[in-house]
């Protein structure tokens, strides 16, 4: 097989127009207290993931940090309500 006959791009992607990179996406990191395990991470991620415009959530109990990718900046009160619904406390945006 010829070297250039691969469908993969030089970056290693096998798909053109990859959806992994979101143009115009906003990433915000929040500090949440009370998370101690994977279940906690899942609960916080699920609630925040239901906010309109959120495309990805990564919660890490060990650090208390929750990274949220969204189409536009989120209303912090909406994030606070989601974290509260999950049973945890939003401290605010991480520095």
Task: Characterize this entry briefly.
With 95 residues, the protein is α+β, with helices and mostly antiparallel strands.
Give an overview in words.
- With 95 residues, this protein is α+β, with helices and mostly antiparallel strands.
- The protein contains 2 helices and 4 strands; from the N terminus they run βαββαβ.
- It has helices at 38-49, 76-86; strands at residues 26-33, 54-60, 65-70, 89-93.
- The protein has a 4-stranded antiparallel beta sheet.
- A hairpin with a 4-residue loop joins strand 2 (54-60) and strand 3 (65-70).
- Helix 1 (38-49) packs across helix 2 (76-86).
- It is globular and about 35 Å long.
- The chain starts with 25 loop residues before the first strand and ends with a strand.
Query: Using only CA atoms, what is the Rg?
Result: 17 Å
* Shape descriptor: globular
Mean pLDDT: 84
Q: Which structural category fits the helices and strands?
A: alpha+beta
> Which regions contain 5 or more consecutive residues with pLDDT less than 50?
1-21
Helix content: 10-25%
Strand content: 25-35%
Calculate the terminal CA-CA distance, rounded to whole Å: 51 Å
Strand order of the largest sheet: 2-3-1-4
Number of strands: 4
Helices and strands, in N-to-C order?
EHEEHE
Note the total helix count. Answer: 2
Main sheet record? 4 strands, antiparallel
